[in-house]
Structure formats: structure tokens, C-alpha cells
């Protein structure tokens, strides 16, 4: 026999499930001095790059690159907060690291995953058509810059592509969460996929950058471009491989 319990709904609150978009930090080294220097190199010129984004610290890469490394989790969290990141959760650490993370106020999140787009499967004539699905809302339009960018100037297209119609001079910096298109000489720094979009690309009619970067993988002018690329139309993309992601630069026919 079933039993019905009397109950009343609370009038002051409700409990609902919620989804929270997180930024993930895949930590490969416990050397916080080196980490601080690389953060400063990458984000030091962009004080508002992050906007107090909630973050999960993924310690699994640390088990691969520096197994058994001692990690000062409190100092790590303090460093991240300097760059307006809000560390909330942790995953992938050993017992000692997870205990330190909990003591620092982080929540264990063993089921958290880092999303990486899967390559599209080829479509053959025999393949059935996919079922119609609801289309996502279109992303914001690209940010378009019409004027040349001088040394010291910086443009960041948050959450969208960046299109530059004039020269990016040495010392200037263009950043986008999506693709970067430069319909002129690119002689400064170009950082595409700034928030981890591995599918982002960089296009330029004259490729001669001081630095190019996609999803954190970068190359500087200290490594000269091949003659077939230097000063010519080209694109930069990220290609996964057994030794990790690598930047590939291809000439363009225009």
C-alpha cells in the first residue's frame, strides 16, 4: 500500500539543477615561478582578458609530465586570481594534491571533462541523412577594424572572430576567441583561439608576424618562416599529433 506524505513547498527558495560554463587550466608543471612568467608573457598586457571566469584546475597532465611533483595549491590559486580567474574545482590529482586542493577550498570534480571538438566524419552517398536538430543561436558577428594598428595598440575580439582591413604593425597585437583575418601585412602579434578554440585559424595577405598563437600553442619570429611563406598570403592552423598539437602554416593562393 502506498503512503502519501503531507508536504508544503517552501516560499523563500527553490533548488534547481544548473549548468555552469567553466574555463579549464590543464596544469603541466608544478613550477609556479615558470607558470607565473608564462602567464605574464601571455596575459600581462591584457589585464581584462578574463572576467572572473569560474575555473576547474585539471591536474591530470601534471601526473604525466611531472609525476609525484609537490604542488603549492594555495599559491597556484592566488596566482590565478591575480589574472581574474576564479578557481572553484579540481580534478586528476594524486591523493596528496587533492588533499591540498580541498584545504585550499577547491571542490573535487572527478567527472569534469575538457571539451575538444571531434573531427567531422566523412559523408558518403550511402550515409543516411541526419535527423533535423535545433540550430544553435548564431555567434556574434566579427569585429572589424578598418584602421592600421600601431605599435602598442591591442584589439581583442571576445567571443568572436576578428577582421583587420589594414596593416598590423610591429608591436601591435590582435587577439580573438575565434579566427583572425588580416587583409593586409601582419607584422605584429596574432593570437587566435584565445580561450582554447583549437579550430581557430589565422589568415593574412602578407604573413610576417612577431608572434602567432592558436589555443596557447605559439611560434615567435625567432624561428624564421620559410621563404615560401614569409611576406606572402598564408594561413595558420593547429594540427594534433602524437607529440601534441603543432602550428602548421600553409601558403594561400589569392
Automatic annotation (TrEMBL):
Transmembrane segments: none annotated. The keyword Nucleotidyltransferase does not apply. GO terms for biological process: cell morphogenesis; division septum assembly; regulation of cell division; regulation of cell septum assembly. Residues 13-87 form the Septum formation inhibitor MinC N-terminal domain. Pfam families: MinC_C, MinC_N. Gene3D superfamilies: 2.160.20.70, 3.30.70.260. It comes from the Bacteria. Residues 144-238 form the Septum formation inhibitor MinC C-terminal domain. Keywords: Cell cycle, Cell division, Septation. Belongs to the MinC family. Interacts with MinD and FtsZ. Cell division inhibitor that blocks the formation of polar Z ring septums. Rapidly oscillates between the poles of the cell to destabilize FtsZ filaments that have formed before they mature into polar Z rings. Prevents FtsZ polymerization. This is Probable septum site-determining protein MinC. It comes from Hydrogenophaga taeniospiralis CCUG 15921. The gene is minC.
Amino acid at each position: 500500500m502506498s503512503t502519501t506524505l503531507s508536504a508544503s513547498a517552501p516560499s523563500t527558495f527553490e533548488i534547481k539543477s544548473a549548468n555552469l560554463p567553466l574555463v579549464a587550466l590543464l596544469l603541466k608543471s608544478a613550477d609556479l615561478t615558470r607558470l607565473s612568467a608564462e602567464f605574464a608573457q601571455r596575459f600581462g598586457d591584457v589585464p581584462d582578458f578574463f572576467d572572473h571566469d569560474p575555473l576547474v584546475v585539471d591536474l591530470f597532465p601534471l601526473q604525466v609530465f611531472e609525476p609525484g611533483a609537490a604542488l603549492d595549491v594555495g599559491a597556484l590559486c592566488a596566482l590565478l586570481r591575480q589574472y581574474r580567474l576564479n578557481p572553484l574545482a579540481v580534478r586528476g590529482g594524486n591523493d596528496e594534491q587533492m588533499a591540498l586542493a580541498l584545504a585550499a577550498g577547491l571542490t573535487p570534480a572527478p567527472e569534469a571533462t575538457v571539451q575538444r571538438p571531434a573531427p567531422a566524419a566523412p559523408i558518403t552517398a550511402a550515409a543516411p541523412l541526419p535527423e533535423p536538430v535545433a540550430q544553435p543561436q548564431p555567434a556574434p558577428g566579427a569585429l572589424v577594424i578598418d584602421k592600421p594598428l600601431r605599435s602598442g595598440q591591442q584589439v581583442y575580439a571576445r567571443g568572436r572572430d576578428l577582421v583587420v582591413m589594414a596593416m598590423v604593425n610591429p608591436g601591435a597585437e590582435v587577439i580573438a576567441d575565434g579566427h583572425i583575418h588580416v587583409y593586409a601585412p601582419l607584422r605584429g602579434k596574432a593570437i587566435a583561439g584565445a580561450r582554447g578554440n583549437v579550430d581557430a585559424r589565422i589568415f593574412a595577405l602578407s604573413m610576417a608576424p612577431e608572434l602567432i598563437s592558436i589555443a596557447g600553442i605559439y611560434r615567435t619570429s625567432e624561428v624564421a618562416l620559410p621563404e615560401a611563406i614569409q611576406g606572402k598570403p598564408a594561413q595558420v592552423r593547429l594540427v594534433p599529433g602524437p607529440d601534441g598539437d603543432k602550428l602548421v602554416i600553409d601558403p594561400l593562393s589569392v
